[in-house]
Fold each of these.
Amino acid sequence: MTLPDRSSLSRREYVRLAVAAGGTAALSACLGGEDDTSSVDVPAGTDDSDSLPTRQHAWNDALTADEHGNVQPPAHHVLVALSLQDDVIEDGRVDETAREATETALRSLERAYEWSNEGLVFTLGYTPAYFERFDESLPDSVDLPDPTALTTQEAPEFDEFDAVLHLASDVPEVVLEAEEGLFGEVSELNGVNLETDLTSVFDRLEDRRRTGFVGDGLPAEHTDVSGVPEAVPDDAPFLMGFRSGFRESQATEDRATLESGPFAGGATQHIESMDINLLQWFDQENHFQRVSKLFSREHAVEDLTGEVGEELTASSGLSLERIDATDADAREHNVVGHSQKAARAREDGEPLLLRRDFNTVDGDRPGLHFLSLQREIDEFVRVREAMTGADLDVPMANNGIRHYIFVNRRGNYLVPPRSLRALPPAAPEP
Ligand code: HEM
């Protein structure tokens, strides 16, 4: 992707396009922009690696929260797809120099940037294909099957490379600089010298790189992309026009964490990428229908959400009765809500998935990279089945948002605890 002519674009839009394009040229274009700064300048990280969480996915305490305690995800995201170089694992053994280089490079990120929205949070997750390189199998305590199609309507491609690095920050230049530090020609990150990079361990798969954004007002900035209508509300944090990620609809980090075995402290991760038919969503549907299909019919009748979900506080307003009414809503009102039916998979009232999804206009098409953390991939599959709602007696067009989303890629990952994040063996010593 080449960078567009900046004179016709706002700074925010230009920087977003630069994140999507990636690369050293994109980074310098951003840094040499309006402010004419020559490097990123954000809060520094720490040399004391023991002060950082032992779980890679422990982001929540470090991120900001709104007045209702809902975690505010970083605004800008990059998923860097990685393929291991040939000699890094030979005869089922990891080359120690490569492992040390990986750990040192990741520590450099932590030294450079504060673990926060303004700095950088990240995880490095590994696919089943990576673990198949070893003679031993993963322990029984880890549920990490190969990804498969999960609905009869989809024929997705699968993430069959080795690993994915998820970089997230409120500052777009930070995600770009961190990626370029690890794989490009940048040797200083936020003023801190990079000791080593990942170029001797992994190759970046440019055509599998994914990017995106989440946050109030960001989706509406993309109405220049074909397929993103002017009707996207100005304040909406997601392209479909509503808030998401309410505290009570999210698994806690504890609930998503593996509790036993050598990978205790890790989590599994699923990434489902999809296109969204926003033109139909906004043109053929009105606000009442959109609320019915995303939340529940009762949310629409009682006007519980407001325009973009601003009336909801720490919860998406899904009482037990509303969740239990899913079947009856299908039969009696011919419509069910996406969150209403997904919530049927809660266990003992607790959501199983910690969702960290973000929108995208990768490939100049609107979409969502749905990323969730959970203890077992099977939990994701069960929630996805509840969301699909094949059991419900309702037409496809009114079965939540299924009619508007088109899944094109799936991947399963293990996000090991921080102590095992650098090229973990399949069967670590206890
Ligand atoms: C374009 C795609 C999607 C959009 C716009 C979307 C939007 C939403 C919204 C607005 C909510 C309610 C607010 C909240 O509770 O945070 C929600 C809840 C939820 N969504 Fe999605 N979602 C999408 C895709 C998915 C996918 C692929 C899954 C996979 C299983 C999923 C699973 C869930 C779950 C588990 C909940 C919470 C249910 C509960 O309260 O227990 N969503 N989503």
Note: The mean pLDDT is 95.
Amino acid sequence: MTSGTRASNLLEALPGRYYTDPAIFELDQRRIFQRSWQCVGRVDALTEAGQFYRVDLGEESVLIVRGRDGEPRAMRNLCRHRGAQLCTEDSGSFGTAIRCAYHSWSYDLDGRLLAAPNMREMPDLVKADYGLHPVRTEQWLGYLWLNLDPEAPPLAAQVEPQLNERLGDGVLERYEIARLGIAATISYEVASNWKAIIENFMECYHCATIHPELTAALPQFRSGYGTISNGASAGASFAEHIDGFSLSGRASRPNLPGLGPSDDRLFYGITLRPNVLLILVPDHVAVFRLEPVAPGRTRVVVDWLFDRETMAADGFDATDSVELLDLTNRQDFEACERCQLGMRSSAYAAVLVPAEHVITAFYDYYLAAIAEPAVRPGLAG
Ligand code: FES
Ligand SMILES: [Fe+2]
């Protein structure tokens, strides 16, 4: 990516069309989002048999349904008769069975075909052959992850190399994210391509300009080098005058129970390609999921997770912590939206300065991911 015409410490950014062109967005969907593990929601979000929520992964609609055995299962939102979407609501309850509103084929909560009108006249309709298409699921960090690709490697192959490179062994485990509860969720509609949001998260060259509150808490970020861009794998240390990652700087609750002294007063920001971001601080964790909606539109859903016992205690209030990150997010997303507007210009030709060179690791991943894949049996490109 190095330009022959510029000084060697400036690297060319990806051309603007990668962020604006519908054909590239389509490629992102097919080559990345339909083949990678997607974090879709907390495992314990569904509490009763028959409860469901719907997830749209690009054009593909998936239902997550809690079965009678308590397990959440994922299946395509696609009737096996004439292909009607079974459900257009975002969430709710199917009761004891999933019934198609068109001709009343009905399916068990685990996706098996139960009945169809006039079934006795149709000996060729073998129930076992017409169940709803299952979607692969895994559970990690207390979240349900889906993969539309039946051939994809397991989730660990997607996330472990990234975690080992960034955090090293055992750090994430100490936060025990699967045991935490959600205190707040904010969904942001951002007028930016999903890749620009990831890239912005990776660099801290912008921090001194747009994040006065964040850099007051984490003075190291004023340098323009974050914990990734300076090559360090450690977290960023809190400023001396603050005790907690909150707008006031106060620590209003104890550290998460699994943490040790080496985790105290540290902030970690981690990118889990393609589209999950984690923030770890001593008393809570934030999980970001990016849902690409269109070339220039991304929904970012952020959960703030705390220790359940701490949440149950009298006087628990997460507002102060939520406010600092929420403010930072809004500053970031506004900057991404400005870039998205600039990317439409015919004169767009951006460069990465040294503090942003870390972004080229994302380019390498991304360009390899959308490249023509080796032909795999049973999968049309
Ligand atoms: S399309 Fe669903 S029952 Fe006919
Ligand atoms: Fe930022």
Note: Residues 45-136 form a domain with the Rieske Iron-sulfur Protein fold (CATH 2.102.10.10).
